[in-house]
Amino acid sequence: MNLPNKLTVLRIALVPFFVAVLLIPGIPNHYLIAAVLFGAAALTDHYDGKLARKNNQITNFGKFLDPLADKILVISALVCFVELKLAPAWCVLLIIAREFMVTSIRLVGADSGVVIAANKWGKTKTVSQIIAIMAILIFEYVNELIAAGNIAEFSIAGADSAVIFQNIGLVLILIATFFAILSGVIYIVQNIGVINTTK
Fold first, then answer.
1. In which element (H, E) is residue 160 found?
2. CB–CB of 66/176 below 8 Å?
3. For 43-71, what is each residue's pLDDT tens digit?
4. Which domains are delineated in the chain?
5. CA 49: distance to chain centroid?
6. How many C-beta neighbours within 10 Å does residue 81 have?
7. Among 35, 44, 54, 125, which residue is least crowded by beta carbons within 10 Å?
């Protein structure tokens, strides 16, 4: 297994630790630790593809595993957010439905001997999700610091910091949901020939 694929596997391996830190009660600074773990996992997404292209190590295994690792990481975080009431369930369901649809198209293509790699819209979708997740984790950590009295609470236009962070987080989740739907539609349009020609 080459280095890019090892980085992709590492991204998947970090997911259980991320989920445990986020959901197990009583862990000090758990939002900060979760943000660090998620950030580290997200960085592997940048470097595995970069190294694969630079060293001419692009493989069919990597083309399948890389987007799968992205899905496992992001969906795990978003499901945890629903549990923690940090993201609307309907947004997460739309995002998951999009991922099932795209994965199904990939499987249909694979059955015909066609490897369908991620496109730029899929990457945009992933980046928007990573930004939303990281921002929410950081917002929640700041809220914990405010609650503990470590930093002063603030307000803007009469809204306290918790409400401000909640609203920004919601907007970011909505943006990520929009790009998930948009990229899914574009993915279907671009690969409709694969679906139609499969017997």
1. strand 159-160
2. no
3. 887 776 666 666 666 666 666 677 788 88
4. 3-197 (1.20.120)
5. 16
6. 23
7. 54
